[in-house]
Amino acid sequence: MEQTVTAAGAIRKPKAGRSTQHLSSGNLPPLIGAKQLSQARWPLAVLVGLALALAFPEPRWVGFAWLVPGAWLAVVAGERRWRLFGLAFVAALVFRLVSLRFLLNMPHMAGAIAGWLALSLYSALYPAAWAWLCGGSLRDGLGKLQWPWFRRLGFGLFAAATWVAFEMLQARLLGGYPWNFLGVSQFENFALIQIASVTGVYGVSFLVVWASVSLLFAVLQIRRSPANPWSWMVDVALPLLALGLVCGSGVFRVAKVPSPTNKLTVALVQPSIPQQLIWQGGTADERLAKILKLSRLALATKPDLLVWPEACASISAERWPEVFGMVKSSGVPLLFGTDDHERAEGSDEVRFYNTAAFLTPDDIQLQSYRKRRLVIFGEYIPFEKALPFMKYLSPIGGSFTAGMEPVQFTLQEGGHMIAPLICFEDSFPHGGREHVSSGTDLLVNLTNDGWFGTGPEQWQHAANAVFRAVENGVPLVRCANNGLTCWIDSLGRVRQFYGQESGDIYGAGFVSFDVLLGQTPGQTFYNRHGDVFGWTCLGWVLGVAGIRGFRAKRGLHTGGGIG
Questions:
Q1: How confident is the model over 81-108, as pLDDT tens digits?
Q2: For 438-456, what is the mean pLDDT?
Q3: Residue of 79, 310, 457, 471 marked active site
Q4: Do the bridges between strand 262-270 and strand 509-517 make them parallel or antiparallel, or are there none, so unpaired?
Q5: End-to-end Cα separation, the chain, in angstroms
Q6: Which of 181, 208, 354, 399 could disulfide-link 371, Cβ–Cβ 3.0 to 4.6 Å?
């Protein structure tokens, strides 16, 4: 007789003749036949993945995010082993392929396709593992699932914690790729996202999954008890209460923000240089001339800081005096992106770094920060030396070297401390936290989104960055090659962006922002203590998995089997 392990870890025997291939409800006839359901699951999995992708920019139909986790479990419920994982993975892969479609805009067709497929396949493993693990607890199918309320509640909370656990792993394994976490889809819900100041973005992901799975159970209750139209409320009452409390506290946090204690005028140059031109040899002087022309116009606004984006123009020894002369004559410090290199000590190996450099009017000695978190398949190739063929999955020919530590630059006027981030470093919750100390006034992200032409990547990138401002309680300025150049206040509101009036965020130009400082005095809980919430969720999941494994092993030793 086959046995199954329930969500609570108990082993029980199924009744003889029980079908695992149809949805039923008590004594009601099946909603759909076994064969038809088996065939329908695959296109339904595709639709689930597509719906989740549409929740992110663009078109940011955020309501889908609240429906997908529960629908995902409904699609895989009742399936087993590799078919269960196959359905889960199809949905996850469609989500990644669609949401990462901007990778196909890279001006290197073979590398673009290979990188798009490789990154989509890799990053799809995490949500697929979630659906596989949680869906495995619904092995009898939804129609036969008649758990008491407290068990449905426990399962919903466990499913939410498991989602967070996999996001925690995704942010760290193989260097980390924390792009488009579920909570990021809610970046414009300013009341809800304030919880990130305590839990990080993971708290928002948790609430979305819990609400979605609870909604699934509520729908099942309506079907099981059509005579009792209020039966569903028991499943959604606690999630709705939690959401109400979180949003209420978020509204209060936004409302009580004091008047800013200071402001910093930041001028940002957006040169909109095509990536093909950046790769093309002999164009450095042309690109630098364009940036210098826009910079002189930007300096007419009398800023406190001038910012260039990531690695748009290299500065030759012949042009360096021109750059320093502009900074010296204007009296405005310059923060800009560049590449640098050094020879490894004791060897002939040359190491290349993606760098943010800081040039002040009275100091020709550059201060610099070297990017610590590199883009997988974009700036480094995993296992490059052990598996040389991996380089064909990336449009780059070799890897950068990661920097060692965060760096902060101090403005002489006002003594403000700014912390640079490069490219998608503003997507790492724990990484952004490491750059913000008690004295940090501003995060500045330098990025070159020109890799991806014009499309959803620019808005997705900014949506991820919103949470770094909330988590750490400091504003964030983004200077991009072709969008989205903007500033985000410490509550996560995108206050202004280049192209806001014209509607063209991708064009060349400059913009000057008066960035408000000190709106949220004191460090946030998340900034002080980090991923307490995320590690707790991961610990809970590992603990439950350990208990399940122990009980399963005990069942085997007593002569039972696990289905």
A1: 889 999 999 999 999 999 999 999 988 7
A2: 93
A3: 310
A4: antiparallel
A5: 9
A6: 354
The CA dihedral of 249, 71, 124, 506, to the nearest 10 degrees, is: -60
**Domains of the chain by residue range:** 4-255+532-551, 262-340+355-370+406-520
Lowest mean pLDDT among 110-114, 361-365, 426-430, 505-509: 361-365
Distance CA 100, CA 461 (A): 11
Residue 103 Cα distances to 99, 342, 445, 449, 491, angstroms: 9, 30, 20, 11, 30
Per the annotation, the verdict on 134 as an active-site residue is: no
Helix or strand (DSSP H, E) at 513: strand 509-517
CA–CA dist 11, 551 (Å, integer): 8
Query: CATH assignment of 262-340+355-370+406-520, given 2.40.30.170, 3.60.110.10, 3.30.450.40, 3.90.1150.10?
Result: 3.60.110.10
pLDDT, tens digit, 9 for 90 and up, residues 466-506:
999 999 999 999 999 998 999 999 999 999 999 998 889 99
Q: Highest mean pLDDT: which of 11-20, 229-238, 255-264, 293-302? A: 293-302
Parallel, antiparallel, or unpaired for β 350-360 and 4-5? unpaired
Pick the catalytic residue from 144, 290, 371, 479: 371
List, as one string, the DSSP characters of 116-130: HHHHHHHHHHHHHHH
- 310 catalytic? Reply is yes
Would you call 479 a catalytic residue per the annotation? no
